[in-house]
Amino acid sequence: MDIAKKLSILADAAKYDASCASSGAPDRASTGEAGIGSTSRMGICHSYAPDGRCISLLKILLTNFCLYDCQYCVNRRSSDIPRARFAVEEVVQLTLDFYRRNYIEGLFLSSGIIRSPDYTMEELTRVARTLREVHDFRGYIHLKTIPDADERLIAEAGRYADRLSVNIEMPTAESLTALAPEKSVTSIKTTMGRMRMRRDEVKAEPRAGTFAPAGQSTQLIVGADASTDRTVLQTAETLYGSYRLRRVYYSAFSPIPHASAKLPTRAPPLVREHRLYQADWLLRHYGFTADEIVVDAGGALDLEIDPKLAWALAHRDQFPVDVNCAPRETLLRMPGLGARNVKRLLATRRQRKIRYVDLVKLRCDMTKAAPFIVTVDYRPVRDTCESQALRSALVTMPRQRGLFDDLGAAAATGN
């Protein structure tokens, strides 16, 4: 099989893994030095970091052959999809060729399990080691970690990769056992724990070398089992607290050919994945807990409004809030105010009292914020309005714009 055909198969097979953003990598460059590549802050396509940067990565599998038969995975052992496998040297050459053509900034490499976890992890590590030591490649490298692989192999992978990740996939141990019987939550979490310990050791003693400086991440599949959004976020909260993960990624389940009867036949709405990412942001940056974020008794996030607004509507007794005297923790919980808005607001109010126009100038989302704030010159007229009525006023149903909408508007106005 020629390399172009392999690339077509193995790039397509890697598309279901969402945990490939490259934020957090240390700055490296080859300008004025030997070597090739960099971890510059400019990208051209494909993957987006949390700060909005666009990162281009060669995202492929080493192989889509796999010993495991995970029911939610298109590459499972019992699947009848076309199979392919790269040699280590082919992945190295592809990465270098793509970089020289300015297509990519780095490599995201995963793999099906072949022969054994140790053998697979050793092959993945060989790719990173060859790029770093033989070709002095200084771009970003993200390796998918094999949970049951020897600790020595994972430690070596961390020397060469900017980020390591191991996908836990299912929100509960029961779901993982039912849908991926060859996998074990215990072994996955043990691997996460070892990576955290290794990173802590390097942080405490810099002379010990480097180990995955961009941290570790994982992925949760949403909608493949009956887990509620509350359960998904509780799992993410535990992972952040226990293993200091840089990110938890959420991937909406996509129905696959010849799927098991245990799996749903329809994909969950993509907006559910979007709401989980918004809720995850509240977990990591706004001081919320998973139990606070999900206000619905059934454990589902509101798909029509964002989680912070949903929380505020469920806690009307805490609003409106005077932005001139509220502490930072309270301001972060206010709809329409982001972390950057709050930082600027606190700096401004050290100089003078905050007025409504100041919030507008700070680019706060006043449509959401107005019913919940008090300034020296403003108090909401609907502060006694019922939450359901206020919610109805704030909800705007999205509408797909038509191709000729602007032309129709122009014709109606005679312009």
Summary keywords:
415 residues; alpha/beta; TIM Barrel; six-stranded parallel β-sheet; two-stranded antiparallel ribbon; 16 helices; 9% strand; globular
Task: Set down the secondary structure blueprint.
Layout (H helix, E strand, L loop, with lengths): L2 H11 L33 E2 L5 E2 L1 E5 L26 H13 L5 E5 L6 H18 L5 E5 L6 H10 L2 E3 L7 H7 L5 H20 L11 E7 L6 H15 L3 E6 L17 H16 L4 H4 L13 H8 L6 E2 L5 H4 L7 H11 L6 H6 L4 H4 L3 E2 L12 H8 L10 H9 L2
Helix pairs in contact: 2-3, 3-4, 4-6, 7-8
The helicity comes to: 25-40%
The order of strands across the largest sheet is: 3-4-5-6-7-8
CATH level-four homologous superfamily name of the largest domain: Aldolase class I
CATH class of the largest domain: Alpha Beta
Say what the CATH topology of the largest domain is: TIM Barrel
Number of strands: 10
Distance between the termini: 58 Å
* Whole-number mean pLDDT: 86
* Fraction in beta strands: 5-15%
Number of domains: 2
Q: Give the topology string: H per helix, E per strand.
A: HEEEHEHEHEHHEHEHHHEHHHHEHH
Structural class: alpha/beta
Low-confidence stretches: 21-25, 27-31, 38-45
Radius of gyration: 24 Å
Provide the CATH architecture of the largest domain: Alpha-Beta Barrel
Number of helices: 16
